[in-house]
Amino acid sequence: MVPVPEQAHGNFFEGDCYIILNVSNSTSQSTDIHYWIGNTSSQDEQGAAAIYVTQLDKYLGGSPVQYREVQGCESAKFKSYFKNGLIYKKGGAGSGFTHVETNTFNIQRLLHVKGTKHVTAREVEVSWSSFNLGDIFLLDLGKAIIQWNGPQSNRQEKLKAVLLAQDIRDRERGGRAQIGVIEGGQEEASPELMKLMISVLGQRTGHLKESIPDDKPDQNQTSIIKLYHVSDASGQLLVQEVATSPLTQDLLSSSDCYILDQGGSSVMVWKGKAASDEERSSALSRAVVSGFIKAKNYPSNTKVEVMSEGGESAMFKHLFKSWKEKRQTQGLGRTNSVGKIAKVDQVKFDVMELHAQPKLAAQERMVDDASGHIQVWRIENLELKEVNPSTFGQFYGGDCYLVLYTYNRANKQQYILYMWQGRHATQDEVTACAYQAVNLDNKYNGAPTQVRVVMGKEPRHFLAIFKGRLIIFEVIGGTGRPGVVNPDPGARLFQVRGTHEMNTKATEVPGRASSLNTNDVFLLKTHQNVFLWYGKGCSGDEREMGKAVADLLSEQDKQIVMEGQEPAAFWVALGGKAPYATDKRLEKEVPPHEPRLFECSNQTGRFLMTEVADFTQDDLDEDDVMLLDTWEEIFLWIGNSANQYETQESYNSAVEYLKTHPAGRDPGTPITTVKQGHEPPTFTGWFNAWDAHKWSVMFKLANSFSII
Hints:
By secondary structure, this protein is an alpha/beta fold. It is built from 16 helices and 32 strands. Mean pLDDT is 80; it is low at 216-222, 327-349, 586-591 and 697-708. One of its GO terms (biological process) is actin polymerization or depolymerization. It comes from Cyprinus carpio.
């Protein structure tokens, strides 16, 4: 292994193999090893790279995740290390070439640039025959770099190519080179630059080739996930299918190795800590060389990841329905420390921490302290009907509502528009709710952040703005419309959950004994009595919030009932005794899934969703729609220049994304729409060092197509 100088990072000779070590600066401190295989590298070089990776992994304690990368088919994570793009160079170390000679100007090469999010540039023949109408080409002449933009290329591709040209100038020429840009459809506007190009390429004859289609969309999402068990218990290595998606973590045994197959789009190898040396050493070679990939007839450039127990990649965890880290313990609450869950007492969330820690604001899904202004409308006859403030917080399962929340941030009014959809609302009402949300959004010039809220999946901030007064009435056909007589359900049972006014809601449940839960407070309301039932596992704070909600639901005197001391009238109202949940609840932990960002674009002529690895704010493309998956919530970020088709298809794709997710995601997960320039902290907190003024700088750069 020979170190590559830093100024040459991103340059790869096609005849060589490379090893890339990346240590993340995040709280997880994850380590990744990639070995890159050039298209014309020898078998000996490829074998040596695999051996060195194994040795490096062992030296680092077996914790790194290993990735096999093939030229032209690199993973998004690999490409994310080289933000300005990859450059493929002809030849290799054996031919005597050096990676970069800084300040050398005796150069003549043509780079074919492709991609909008992850850019690659390949050395091609210095000839007009290499050009096409849809891509961008850099003619590098040492002291001058000419960027030729194909007539069918888009603005984002042009911007990325400029950044690559600047990177070459600054790293390889010490900043001493001029960059010129020619628009392929308006060559006559750049006569001096065209004269220079013709002096190198000669006079162009004939027509240029048509554009080459960009990469096809990643099929990882919809492919069938299968898990295979690798074992030598019988004396020889056997690979056997054990499960298909959705997968659960308990399928993995520490004493064995496993292969996770994403339908051939990628293969992941998991090595248990207690697996035999034979299994651990053979798992990678079997997956890559002799067995699995060949037996499946997958292409030789199939992506491969290898990881040890405890060092799983974020993508691997995302394929499981739930994932719990070994170091985590279950408890009755979540601590506000970033990244870890511990057994702590529930305390009221301090909103001031949101400003000090943007990431915490995102994780807690709180934009402020919920002290803003609320307006509520109900959908009646497909139109908006304002709700009386005295009934704010009361939602009926047969209705749809719009809730506009107004708050101040940095002396500027911000808006969140919640679209609450009752479980029993008609499809016409759901559609009308979405339509009226667009009208209301337009009234505020597109400033509101839109959040779809499915009944029973209310986010924390939604609970907080109603200050402990959130009550959901479940009765089928029930509505909050004035003058409408709702069906008489007889006894009504409400489950109350929460420890303070910022996290409490009451939900109507079926009025029978099996609905009870030993961990919670319940309110049973009949025509004659009102019972407040305290389960053995509820806390004093939960009891206090139960009393407060009971006063909202009824002015009658409440009869306190302790679990195990119920009067006969209590059971009669519920239709008799029946078994119910009596296990002490350990609050469901949020799986430690890393957020994922996808670009949603039809710039290539068809709608594609492309994942962006190790994303930053720079990856938000104002020409497109971006989908941010934080597991508990889906954000759709709408760029200022995104077209209507992308916006519409992105929402449909977000719904489909949840339905088809291999981990069996909840289709009711909130989907929040965020406009560029109006991002709430629950969104920006997932990005390091968010810059609210970035877009104006990017606009100036995108329009600087001249000598730079």
